[in-house]
Amino acid sequence: MKTLSRLLLLALLAALAGAGGWWLTRPKPVEVVVHEVARGTVEATLTNTRAGEVEACQRAKMATIAGGRIEWLGVEEGDRVEAGQVLMRLWHGDLDARAAVARAQLATTRQRVHEACTVAANAEREAARQAQLFKRGFVSASAEEKARTEARARRAACDTVQADVATAAAQLTATETERQRLVLVAPFAGTVAKISGELGEYATPSPPGVPMPPAIDLIDDSCLYVKAPMDEIDAPKIQPGLPVRITLEAIPGKVFAGTVRRVAPYITAVEKQARTVAVDVDFVNPDEARGMLVGYSTDVEIVLATRAEVLRIPTSALREGGKVLVVEGDTLAERTLVTGVANWEFTEVVSGLDAGERIVTSLEREGVVAGAKVLARPAQAR
């Protein structure tokens, strides 16, 4: 009997030792951060690859057609100008002299017209008198013919001089037109952004293929829009009319509503940078853009689609193949989802999860695999 009791005691001690060893060596549950599946809004969006810029709807980088010395500069940088206002004029004394000669020639030619045409009218009246006298037999046929020939010659001389008047007028117009090649006139109302050159300096027009700084850079800052580069892969998804959210580094915390106006019909390739397509975005409320400076850096977020009140999960919780880890009791189980609209923050769940289920978001932790025992804690509210 004592032997049996001793054996039972030894067996109990062995069982307790085994249980204690298992307890000490058992796998500890992995602490994971979980997110409870709920409903909300999910948007499919695109963002620019590089910073965009605020642009003026009208901007003219103007230069004179011909080169010359700056004789008159009527504006300063920052000045407001009206359409048609003269901004700059180059020296054109030679053209003024040529115009004066052309005007004198025109005046002289007009005097010759008066003289020649008066003589022609007298010759025509004389020819008419000779014709009447010939009918009565008072003059010979040769005298009457001579009078008619003289009248025709005088009339031709009158017509020739009148043509000379048109030629002289055209020469004067050509000289005055050539003078306009040396004058810069504002094509629209705006602000003078920059002036290249000072009074007395020589202004040189930009030859073909050789970029030169404009003499005057004029911008219409009453109408602004945003130009942003988007990745070429996203170009087929972008269409005019899509809503846009615009943010500016210079105005933090403010989001401006916009609309896609134009998608460039070509891809821009910049060395050592991604190939992009330029997208023009208008402000929904243009008054909000007043006071912005042309050239401000901007970011745009184009909204491709919006799903309201749908099941959604953090996009970071998705694994390859559309899989997630779901907490079932104290164990992780893998699920494959059918997803819909997505962005960098949230992804729509079409099927595979129900509201209230908990999924793991801390996928980077060691031991977070299907079948693992876990200790779940909710994500901190943001």
UniProtKB/TrEMBL annotation:
<dbReference type="InterPro" id="IPR006143">
    <property type="entry name" value="RND_pump_MFP"/>
</dbReference>
<dbReference type="GO" id="GO:0016020">
    <property type="term" value="C:membrane"/>
</dbReference>
<dbReference type="GO" id="GO:0030313">
    <property type="term" value="C:cell envelope"/>
</dbReference>
<feature type="domain" description="CusB-like beta-barrel">
    <location>
        <begin position="226"/>
        <end position="288"/>
    </location>
</feature>
<dbReference type="InterPro" id="IPR050465">
    <property type="entry name" value="UPF0194_transport"/>
</dbReference>
<keyword id="KW-0175">Coiled coil</keyword>
<dbReference type="Pfam" id="PF25954">
    <property type="entry name" value="Beta-barrel_RND_2"/>
</dbReference>
<protein>
    <submittedName>
        <fullName>RND family efflux transporter MFP subunit</fullName>
    </submittedName>
</protein>
<dbReference type="InterPro" id="IPR058792">
    <property type="entry name" value="Beta-barrel_RND_2"/>
</dbReference>
<comment type="similarity">
    <text>Belongs to the membrane fusion protein (MFP) (TC 8.A.1) family.</text>
</comment>
<dbReference type="GO" id="GO:0022857">
    <property type="term" value="F:transmembrane transporter activity"/>
</dbReference>
